[in-house]
Amino acid sequence: MSRLVVVSNRIADPRKTAAGGLAVALAEVLNGTGGLWFGWSGKIVDATEGDDVHFMQAGPVKLATVDLSQVDHDDFYLGYSNGVLWPVFHYRLDLADFDAGYIAGYRRVNQLFARKLMPLLQPDDVIWVHDYHLIPLAAELRALGCQQRIGFFLHIPLPPPLIVAAIPGHDWLIRALFAYDLVGFQSQADLAHFAGYVESEAHAQPLGDGRWRAFGRTVHAGAFPIGIDVEEFTQLTQAPEAMEMYERMKREYSRRRLLVGVDRLDYSKGLPQRMRAFREFLQKNPDLRSSATLIQIASPSREDVEAYSDLLHELESLCGSINGNFGELDWMPVRYIHRTVARARLPGLFRASQVALVTPLRDGMNLVAKEYLTAQDEEDPGVLVLSRFAGAAEQLREALLVNPYDTEGTAAAILLALQMPLEERRLRHQAMMKTIRQYDVHWWCDSFLNALQEAQAEEKGTSWL
Ligand code: GDG
């Protein structure tokens, strides 16, 4: 069996359960092959300190990391990755900062990764690169003579061709995808956008069977919706810490209905829109007013990017005004927590909540939706209100699907969710759990890696850069 080499911007120690489903699933495959995980150490160092690779053994998995200089971190991570690609790929051209200097940093770090990874590779390695930070990595590796099979998975959405085309240098970026043997997306919609782009902008020829040919090379592309580790999350739900959280919530909210939202504080997650919909629900349903509480956990994220501090203020002001206008002496409609909650407690909170509001404006997949459903009591499950613009909506058709921009429609769905009869809740939950179990994180890993094994590696000689 070939050794697996995983490359991602950040790496997680796969032995720590706090790392979550993705790290655990990757660790399982890496353990099987005695694999290598390569990425950024998370450390920023003085440019004069050199760029050594640090190694750490985590069970059978070898972790290899490099540090970044301040300027590389600013241009590559804050600048191009999170100031250009993240907003544009989430359809937010208005938030993109197309500073011409960022792209040089993005290339520099991808070159650094390629240069440092290349000597660690073995001839029959299979390389799996993750996410938007590292789109040109395969092209950089090929330029150094890398012949191995390389796959890429995009965790975030790919927008329609004309939105991608707004990025200065977009043709370079998409051309770089052709240096991979397989490119994976979260949804059929994202895959269709890829096809649309490469056919209209790069004049690629569709060869059928999910293959496209352009720039003298053939790339395979497919949709591989990511799942969760259902078994691990079920165990987490039954563990003492989650049970304790569940009991506490049940006690505290014995006379009230609980709604829950758990998201990174990110503008893609539609948090202000969600608050406005909840406010609309409170306004329209005075009789239900003091019986429903929304707990919103917004874990801090990328606070050094400007758009995120604007969002923080908007959200704080909305929560404050909702509580100010609708709160009673003994009840506040919104409990807003701007902190990270321990992973072990999340399933308890999910299980105690009758409704989950997962209403991103755009999301590659959204794992919270799948975690919420997995944590439910199947005899008396809660209801998922899900944005039609989350990748998860392609799979979870039995959720209450909403348009998060439609305040009134989302408010109506909240009411429907709170009033849904038990039998209907069970049927919907059962149907969605079937999908979540079938397409879990192991399915995701296996199906991607099988497709990568089958993808015919060819035309290694092409010049990429
Ligand atoms: C990207 C894509 C895609 C959240 N708050 C806390 C916390 N979380 C955990 C959740 C979940 C994970 O973080 C978030 O995953 P999502 O999928 O919802 O979103 P992104 O972070 O944006 O992830 C996304 C994903 O990649 C995988 O491909 O689904 O579309 O954007 O596991 O539970 N965990 C803890 N405390 C918190 O406060 N412990």
Description:
The protein is of the alpha/beta class. The chain folds into two domains: 4-227 and 443-455, Rossmann fold; 230-438, Rossmann fold, CATH 3.40.50. It is built from 16 helices and 16 strands. It has helices spanning 21-33, 70-89, 100-117, 137-143, 161-164, 170-177, 188-200, 230-238, 240-252, 271-284, 306-326, 346-352, 367-374, 407-419, 422-438, 441-454, and strands at residues 4-10, 36-45, 53-58, 61-69, 126-130, 149-153, 182-185, 205-208, 211-214, 217-223, 257-264, 292-299, 334-337, 355-358, 383-387, 400-402. The strands form two sheets. Strands 3-4-2-1-5-6-7-10-9-8 form a ten-stranded mixed sheet, sandwiched between helices. Strand 1 (4-10), helix 1 (21-33) and strand 2 (36-45) form a beta-alpha-beta unit. Helix 3 (100-117) packs across helix 4 (137-143) and helix 10 (271-284) packs parallel to helix 11 (306-326). The longest helix is centred in the last third of the chain and has 21 residues, at 306-326. The protein is globular. The model has no long low-confidence stretch (mean pLDDT 93). The site of GDP-alpha-D-glucose (GDG) has 20 residues, from strand 11, strand 12 and helix 13. GDP-alpha-D-glucose (GDG) is lined by residues 20, 155-156, 226, 262, 264, 297, 299, 340-343, 346, 363-368, 371.
